[in-house]
Amino acid sequence: MRPLHAVCTLAACLILGLSAVARADGDDLEIPAATGVSDAALDAAPVTDAGASSSAAAQVSPAVPPPNATFDGGADAAAPDATVADAAAAGEGFVRAGIEPSLTSGVSGPFGLVFSGYIQGQFETSRLSEDQVLQGQVPANQDRFLVRRGRLRVDRNFQWAQTTLEIDGNTTRGLAFGLRRAEASFVYRNPDKGAPPYVRVTAGLTEIPFGYEMTDSARSRYFMERSTGSLALFPGEPDVGVRVSGGISFFRYSLAYMNGEPVDDRPGRSVRDPNAAKDLIARVGVDVAPRPALHVTGGVSFLTGRGFHPGKDATKADVAWRDLNENDVIDPGELTAVPAAAATPSESFGRFALGADLQVSLTTRLGETRLYGEVFAAQNADRGLFVADPVASGSNVRELGWYLGILQEVTRYGIVGFRVDVYNPDADLFDTRVGKRVPASATIRTYSPLVGIKLPDRLRVLFQYDAIVDSLGRNNVGVPSDLANDQMTLRVQGEL
What we know:
This protein is mostly beta strands. The protein is built from six helices and 25 strands.
């Protein structure tokens, strides 16, 4: 057994022996039902800069009210500053931006704006790394420092509307800056503090409502990246379109009509929509708390849409030379005529995905524990890893995937976790051996132990090892074997 298997086994035993789960929050500006601070404390706490003195803190902007509060002089209203007072006098129905749920509340700025952000710097190493260049002069080195995410977000809330703008910078594939989120929303709010709105209609660049990982904020997620299957179906977390979401009591829903071209925060992939067809994505679920310390959420999701197979350009007649004997001289039989070819039209093809997810959180004296998992089945939906193209391959491609993860807080300052994710990009794969076609497996299994320390709402230091078991390599006789592509990541995340 390789040392990495022993490490994974030991980590799994350690984590499974612990009891107790923190629920990760999404990116929407609504206070989650289960939060580590009481509503009363949130209403009373002023939003200050961490570096401000105690005397200056007394002069900062007033407390941030719940998302539904208006400055109407009611019992729960905070004393507004001049900007807020002017807006209220003008009859705007102005409302301060709600609490940023991922980790911190952000910093209040002028005109009711709330600023928040975070930085993820990391060192990563991979067994695939070489001091060479690949075809096209692409470096093969994967042992490096990089900024995985550096994000700045601005929010503003009104009584019936909400706007969000978020930008991202990273050095994953060279220095790049881009738009991560740009939302304009109509919001029909629930009067209960902490509850999601009854209806939120959002247009712009917004999250894709499929499963749990897609709506789990990268800011609050402890594992370095989403599972392999999620990254394959959705190379990026947001897409451009329209989304309707909300909740009533324990019921949650989200329906989106989008381009079908997820926007990857790593540069190098075109995101322009190539066809008129759009993706329809939906998720319905529940959010319940049977006991004060127990929180259960889950749902089912589906996606349907059409992919795109690009046509080929027309070509002219040509002559090709193959130097069979490598003597640098044209010999008889080495010239071949290449006939002209007409252009081929582009085609669209159908794709779909079905998924289900479940999360269970429990709070004990040790800390919070979260056990969560997801499973999906799809057809022609891989857009990021082994891109599905049934027009080119001549048959539909079935994808299957699932993951199971557990996270355990060790007091407020420690975290351990373990995740298993499995992804099969082609459930009907065949291989050719000794002139015969035989069934083959393309399944990728990843075992990821994680350990870290944190200063709540300030800083995280996380270490993750990914033991990857697959059949992407070949042994000496050409039989598929496990590729040596395990990787390690050490990340430091700081809050702005």
